[in-house]
Every structure is written in C-alpha cells, then in structure tokens.
Design goal:
Helices cover 29% and strands 24% of the residues. A hairpin with a 2-residue loop joins strand 2 and strand 3.
Length: 196
C-alpha cells in the first residue's frame, strides 16, 4: 500500500489574499481538489491523507466530504507538521512509503505522479526529491522560491514513514506542470495564462 500525504496546513502568507491557499480556484476548481484528482488517478496511491492545521480551518471543513483522511497538525511549520504525521501510527505504518505533495500544484496529473513513483521504486533508495530544471521556470516566467544546482524542488517527495535521516536521490522531471507551484498572485496570473 502507498499513501499520499497532501500538506495543506501552511499560512500561505505570500499570496496576500483573503482565502486559504488550498481553496484558491484555478480553472474553476480549488487547487487541493486538482491535487486530490491527480492522486486518485494514480495507479500507485491507495490512501490519501491531508495534513491541515489551525491555519486552514476552512480547508478542513471543505474536505469533509472528500474520500481522504484529515489529520490535524499544530501548524508550526512544514517540517514540524510532516514529522507529526510520519510518527503517527494511527495513519501510517512505520517505514511505509509516503508521497508528500503540496496542495498548490493545480496542473499535476496522475500520469505524472505514476512517473515519479516508477523512478522512486527503480532507485531503491528510501527517499527521493522531485525537482524541475530552472530553465522551465525561466521559459514560463515563473519565479522559483529555491534553486539548487540549477534545479527547483517541486513540493513532491517520496520517503519512508519514520523521522530518521534518509538517503535521498533527486529526480529531475521535465514536466512543466510540476513547476506551477502557486505561491504568489503572480504565479496565479501565470497559471491562468498557461491554461489558455
């Protein structure tokens, strides 16, 4: 069994709008709904968890009728919230494979996620970070939040459900949809242009 964990507890302060970031609509559908659809269309995902926090009460309410398990975290920060989930045996088994994915990737597809899973299982390492080349960001006018050796982390990772340090590989995806991590109003505007 493979579990996907959507991280949806952040404050989203860079958006500077009066709406919880996972609930922002892209192409008439909330961003978190796009991510859930992609996970449901993956051949590898058996179970979907969503980590919410005191920062995202409306997201929690919105998800009540979705086929997901909602986990309340402290909302202190991404790493802290992730650690809370990975150590919670009510939701994940020790050393179970977990895909973590941010709630603001509205263009990701199940096929792309299957590609990520296949690369992960081929590499036989406990952890894998999915990145996109910086030039894809430049091509579409997207401003990356972090660049490391010409690669930009996408917010999609695979790891084992424990809090141990894990040997990690980096998978360089050429899927531009993984570059559209919506963090700012500018990113949102660009996403609308990309749709057209």
């Amino acid at each position: 069994m493979t579990t996907a964990l959507i991280m949806a507890g952040g404050k989203g302060t860079r958006m500077d709008i009066d709406c919880e970031k996972p609930l922002i609509k892209v192409n008439n559908k909330t961003m978190i709904n796009h991510v859930i659809d992609a996970l449901q269309n993956s051949n590898y995902v058996d179970n979907i968890l969503v980590a919410v926090s005191p920062n995202t009460p409306l997201t929690r309410q919105y998800l009540e009728d979705f086929p997901v398990n909602i986990i309340q975290t402290s909302g202190i920060g991404y790493i802290e919230d992730l650690s809370e989930v990975l150590s919670n045996r009510d939701y994940v088994e020790e050393d179970e494979v977990i895909m973590t994915i941010v709630a603001d990737l509205p263009f990701v597809t199940g096929e792309q996620l299957d590609d990520v899973f296949e690369h992960y299982f081929e590499r036989k390492k406990p952890a894998m970070c999915v990145s996109v080349p910086e030039f894809l960001f430049e091509k579409h006018g997207i401003t990356p939040t972090l660049v490391f050796d010409g690669l930009v982390p996408t917010g999609v990772n695979l790891l084992l459900a424990n809090n141990d340090e894990q040997d990690q590989t980096i998978y360089e995806s050429k899927n531009v949809e993984l570059a559209f991590n919506i963090n700012t109003i500018h990113d949102l505007d660009l996403s609308e242009k990309y749709l057209h």
